[in-house]
Amino acid sequence: MELKTLRCPSCSAIVRNLTENDTEFINCEYCGSTINILEAKSEESDNQNLLLDLAKVEFSHKNFDKALSYVGKILEDNNNNKDALWLRFNILLQKYEGELFYSDSENDYNSYFDDDSDNPYKKYKEKAIKSLVNLFRISSDNERNNFLRKLRKQEFSKAIFNSITVLEKLNDACSQTNSEILSSVLPLYYRSDLDARRKKISLPDKIKNQISQTETNLKKIDSESFSTLNSNYLSDLKTIETENLSKQTYSKDTNLKKTPNITLYLLLALLVLIIFLLLFI
Ligand SMILES: [Zn+2]
After folding, report:
1. The pTM is what?
2. Please, how many CA atoms are within 13 Å of residue 107, restricted to the half-sphere of its CB?
3. Among 181, 191, 205, 251, which is most buried by a count of CB atoms within 10 Å?
4. How far is the CA of 72 from the centre of ligand 1 (A)?
């Protein structure tokens, strides 16, 4: 296990700023005692695994606060502990699930992660996402795909795939573009584009750029997914354009019908006036 910090066995102070070159012995900057790095590291690693086991047990018994405190201790010593980051994400979301989720309504559920409401528990949701983003930052593409598979399976986390905000954050955290994330976010961008066209409002430039960038990147790493998503989009686009066109023709038609009606009324009014004048003069 890679540790950037370790705890001094004599005084328990946390020795930070270890470098790759520190392989054998260093002196504790607090008590001055000599620390055998390899020994301290393996001790520390054992300690972290023990805390992780304790956290998992508490989590399985739904003792969320105890589980969080164990996870917190692990991350305090090593904020790159992937198991701990993943566990913290899961604990936070499950702990506040009742307060944060609206699973009874499909729509609300889908917009769950994009919801900007003043929910007092919102910060825990954000904290959970932050753990996930940190985890994605330090994981390999294979590991990320494993996490994504799990996220999709879990009832409380699958709404992530309907959130542009979260998917963008995860995408930004990845050192190399991940096809699963891109092929999840592209249909969401397309949907905003189609909605805008339906309402005849222009799409913000930021989203336009995101669309073309995402298309380019996905085409490069997974051209098959790109083709499927893009052809669905193009067929929806065609439908909307046909609809808009027929609406336009319809309104033109009604305009044409209205114009002679007004002329007709004017002529009638004139005729009545003439008859009126003829009768009384
Ligand atoms: Zn010390």
Report:
1. 0.74
2. 0
3. 181
4. 22
